[in-house]
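Reviewer comment 2.1 asked that we show a complete input and output for one of the modelled complexes. We chose the NAP case, as it is the one discussed in the main text.
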Amino acid sequence: MGRLDGKTALVTGGNTGIGREVCLAFASEGADVAVNYIVREPEAENLVRMIDARGRRALAVKADVTREDEVRAMVQRVLLAFGRLDILVNNAGIQKAQAITETTVEDWDRMMAVHLRGAFLCCREVVPPMQARGSGKIINTCSQLAYSGRARYTAYSAAKGGLLTFTRALAQELAPAIQVNAVAPGLIDTGFDPLPESRKREIAESLPLKRLGRPDDVAPVFVFLASDEGRYFCGQTLGPNGGEVMP
Ligand code: NAP
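Response of the prediction step:
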């Protein structure tokens, strides 16, 4: 028996990296999964085939999470295909390391839009059907930088800090029927942050656990929060980060 048997999930930015591993883990635990993406369609279609092969229903849905019309259409499509939506993972993200003096208004606004407006729009669409059913789980992918910040990552850190507080506020608003929580990973080796290998080795060495994270270090935390095992978590942020930040 899977821990998510009979459940359905939508994972934004689900085609690659952390989101991909979460989709696979959810499917392995019995969930049907909608995989959102914006550009890399072959990765999304390939993942759908892998989930199909595990005997679960899967759907690739292209949508820019910053666009109200596209998010609405995406959620409608998922509801039509699966008949219900039990789990939303707000995982879509972008990264751009730059000094504040090099950051344009467009850079800043895009960072806020993908991480914050995207989570807001997706939550606004899924909450009514979840409330109608009387249950639901929402999990937001934050970052350890939400706590610590990092030089040259000011926009990203601010966006993730905002997402952490969004999680806490929404958790209070929607409980007890809908549980809202977050996961704040440390550096996970997905290519999201294109650091040179030497810098990655340096960071790994500085961590108490002495290695960078992998998507499969993080995905089980999402499964835990999405499953009944996470039933007493509300507005929490769990941090698989190798010990780098201990909030
Ligand atoms: P990734 O493989 O590059 O994943 C980013 C995902 O976001 C991709 O699926 C991408 O879709 C999607 N995306 C970007 N903009 C979008 C938009 N406007 N609408 C819909 N989808 C959009 O990197 P990752 O490492 O797995 O990152 C996933 C999440 O984890 C992000 O929120 C990131 O901030 C967070 N995180 C990552 C790390 C890390 O070290 N890797 C650490 C902490 C937190 P396409 O592939 O179609 O472009």
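DSSP finds eight helices and seven strands in the chain. We note this here for comparison with the apo prediction described in Section 3.2.
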